[in-house]
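Predict both folds.
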Amino acid sequence: MLRILILLIIGTGVGYLLRGRCSFSGISKWSIQVTVCALLFVFGVSIGSNRSLIDNFFTFGWQAAVIAVLGITGSIVAAIIAQRLLRKGGKS
């Protein structure tokens, strides 16, 4: 974990020093997409190779669906409340 934090700090420093000199935005967008796709593939392979997880897929699937629906519902409710509070504060 410390190694990851050190790399993050070094990368931030290098990015700060190189800002304005060269643009990495095109390269970084492409590399992030490739990295995320590779991580999702490896995650899928690890899930598929776990026999106990596959055997209990429907049990875990229902739990995951309930958690996802409740999380989305809670986020929508919180966004509506925040929007009403911010509108009320902005009009006065």
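Second protein follows, with its predicted structure tokens after the sequence.
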Amino acid sequence: MPQSVRKSALRRRDPAHEEERQELLRSLSRTRTLINQAYGGFNSASDSDLIESYVFEINSLQARYNYLLRRVKELEGAT
């Protein structure tokens, strides 16, 4: 798709899709913050059970982040 067509398509984005996209971007940002906090906890933990819980938390948050990123890309492709 030529650049000029792509830009005009972005300006005409469906308001419902744009609202959902903005919410997904906010969720991505929050999830990124939570991942960073979990890594901080992991790096300072010394108890093996606590370390294991941080590993599960990080994996879960990364899965959520990947899902949200995929949804944003799907919405951007739908416009």
